[in-house]
């Protein structure tokens, strides 16, 4: 399942991505925000993280102005690997090398088409495992 979250600065891009997903018959869960009224991104990152962690197959797409706030707030949880991605190559590496389970997008720097392309790469790239799995265990505190 794709879990979507944004603050007010990411709201429009989130809605555009939801339209894309609807057209592709991909089901999403939107934990907010639901307008352009100012809100605090940590609140929506927390809601998104809770939903992502409900199922190991869930992934998150979290959006704020810079993407940094959502990434920082999400990565407070040791089971989350949130990656701020500005382009398709970063999204591919985040999944392939880092097994990222949350994609953070910077709404102030992306237009709809580019964001959709980044999301497509993120959702279709698999974790490579191998030497990367050892590193992921270290990030999450596993032995």
Tell me about this structure.
The longest helix is centred in the first third of the chain and has 13 residues. The chain contains six helices and five strands; from the N terminus they run βαβαβαβαβαα. The mean pLDDT is 96. The chain is of the alpha/beta class. Strands 2-1-3-5-4 form a five-stranded parallel β-sheet, with helices on both faces. The chain has a single domain, classed as Sugar-phosphate isomerase, RpiB/LacA/LacB (Ribose 5-phosphate Isomerase B, Chain: A, 3-Layer(aba) Sandwich), CATH 3.40.1400.10. Helix 2 packs across helix 3.
Q: How is this structure best summarized?
A:
This protein has 143 residues and is of the alpha/beta class. Helix content is 45%, strand content 15%.
Q: Features of this protein?
A:
single chain, 143 residues, alpha/beta, 6 helices, globular, 5 strands, 15% strand, Ribose 5-phosphate Isomerase B, Chain: A, five-stranded parallel sheet
Helices and strands, in order, run as: EHEHEHEHEHH
Count of distinct structural domains:
1
Low-confidence regions:
none
CATH architecture: 3-Layer(aba) Sandwich
Q: Kindly state the percentage of residues in helix.
A: 40-55%
Number of contiguous helices: 6
- According to CATH, the fold-level topology is Ribose 5-phosphate Isomerase B, Chain: A
What is the count of β-strands?
5
**CATH domain class:** Alpha Beta
Provide the CATH superfamily.
Sugar-phosphate isomerase, RpiB/LacA/LacB
First and last CA, distance: 29 Å
What percentage of amino acids are in beta strands? 15-25%
Q: What is the gyration radius calculated from CA atoms?
A: 14 Å
Biggest sheet statistics: 5 strands, parallel
């Amino acid at each position: 399942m794709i879990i979507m979250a944004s603050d007010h600065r990411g709201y429009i891009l989130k809605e555009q991505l939801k339209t894309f997903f609807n057209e592709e018959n991909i089901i999403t869960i939107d934990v907010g925000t639901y307008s352009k009224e100012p809100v605090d991104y940590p609140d929506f990152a927390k809601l998104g993280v809770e939903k992502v962690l409900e199922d190991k197959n869930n992934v998150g797409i979290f959006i704020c102005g810079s993407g940094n706030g959502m990434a920082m707030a999400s990565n407070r949880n040791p089971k989350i690997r949130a990656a701020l991605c500005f382009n398709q190559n970063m999204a591919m590496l985040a999944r392939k090398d880092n097994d990222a389970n949350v994609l953070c997008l910077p709404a102030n720097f992306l237009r709809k088409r580019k964001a959709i392309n980044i999301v497509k790469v993120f959702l279709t790239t698999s974790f490579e495992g191998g030497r990367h799995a050892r590193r992921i265990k270290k990030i999450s505190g596993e032995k």
